[in-house]
Amino acid sequence: MAIPSTVFKAQATGNDFVMYHDPEGVWQPTDEETRWLCDRHFGVGADGLLRLTEPRYVSDLSAEQRKECARGGATWFMDYRNADGSLAEMCGNGTRAITFMARRLGLTDADGTLRLGTRAGVRIIRPNTDHPELGDDVFTVDMGTFLRGDLGGHRVTIPEVMGMGPGTYVDMGNPHIVVVVGDDRKIPDGHGEIGSDDERGNTLRALLRDTTLPDVPALDLSRKPVVEPALPHGKNVEFVRISEYSTEEDRGAATMRVHERGVGETLSCGTGLCATAITLQALTGVRHWRITVPGGLLQVDVDERTSRVWLTGPAHITGSMALEPR
After folding, report:
1. Burial (Cβ within 10 Å: 0-12, 13-18, ≥19) of residue 142
2. Annotated catalytic, 38?
3. Please, which residues bridge with residue 16 across strands?
4. Does 91 participate in catalysis according to the annotation?
5. Catalytic residue among 38, 69, 269, 274
6. Does residue 138 register a pLDDT over 60?
7. Residue tagged active-site, from 38, 69, 91, 274
8. CA atoms of 121 and 131, how far apart (whole Å)
9. DSSP code of 150?
10. Could you read off the pLDDT of 42-57 as tens digits, one per residue?
């Protein structure tokens, strides 16, 4: 096998992973082995595979990507594969899970910080104190910069599901389309009805009125959403419902579900949470969001001036497993 005999199983708000440390670069998995490990019936079961190794041992990286890791001080690299074996640029929940493993292996800085190379660039992950709402073993990830397209610039449908929704493109190093659903008459802005005549309020109201998809809890995400215009390398699609927000307090709350490229629906998606908060910030002006996903609660903070975003949430190692030879 091109994988070690012992692996870790971890989860970060229900986004689960098989992980292992490969310090000498000898365990590069095949697509078939990745699919087997991630299979929930015939393998270990996971949304993806995380291999922690040095950048020089990741065969698909360019010379410039390796130099970027060096410039960013990233000794270690998160070689991430989706459950179907395809390579992925980035995984926000995965960075927290692999940092938990790196800390246990003594690979982080003295304060627990890890500078981690990814295909989307270097990410900095710092441990946080345990939180009464977010949970134990909380980490904050500097998710780097983002790029957002036109609000509602794509059309999103789901096969065999009635309705459509305007979707907003967000590049988090990997591609996302965010669709806001719900009833525009039931979304407060901290002062009662969302009746303010500002440009953002009008845009949010218009997107919601154009959306005919079911509300978040009723969506059937067993099929891959269709996005038009299509994206050349696939996409993750997030569906979000705003629960509340206050422009005075600069805080909001929302609920999200996601269909991930190469996986299907997952309980959480870190980059998808960031893409969602970025879209919500553009629509409301609110920068700090608590977003509930099926796997738990996370905090996302957006700085539109620098186009940067931070993700805060827990991660846990479920256990280790000795694999039988195949």
Report:
1. middle
2. no
3. 11
4. yes
5. 269
6. yes
7. 91
8. 28
9. -
10. 999 999 999 999 999 9
